[in-house]
């Protein structure tokens, strides 16, 4: 089965630096196959069989700690999970000079539509959707300072998500589909 490992908080602002070539080797050493990294922020596509997503996550978190000395949360999603998320993103959503659109991949512990109740969502500014595995959030950049999205930073929820912009999420999906064929 094809999976994506989404690492939270690596190679951002000079913190938790991990070389992607070395990370790829770490994944291969613990049995992941066809390992491909995408950009420097912790997106690793790979294939593996016979273990649950939680078991794979645990193996990878331990391997990253052993090889890099970092306690990094690893969110695992399979191709079907990512397909469901990508299909829920409106085609008009982009991450460009006019719009900011993100996928907030949720830890399993908070993966429920009720997570939306704990967010500050400004009507007519924020467009927010829950889909199993993620929160989708889009804002016109001209309203960026008025958005409730900034209020998530530092919250309990923020510590239980890893964020990718929709352009990155779509590319990850394309890479996963290519590996599955």
Automatic annotation (TrEMBL):
Alphabetical list of Gene3D superfamilies matching this protein: bacterial protein sp0830 like, SP0830-like domains
Pfam assignment, any one: DUF1697
Extent of the signal sequence: none
Name recorded for this polypeptide: DUF1697 domain-containing protein
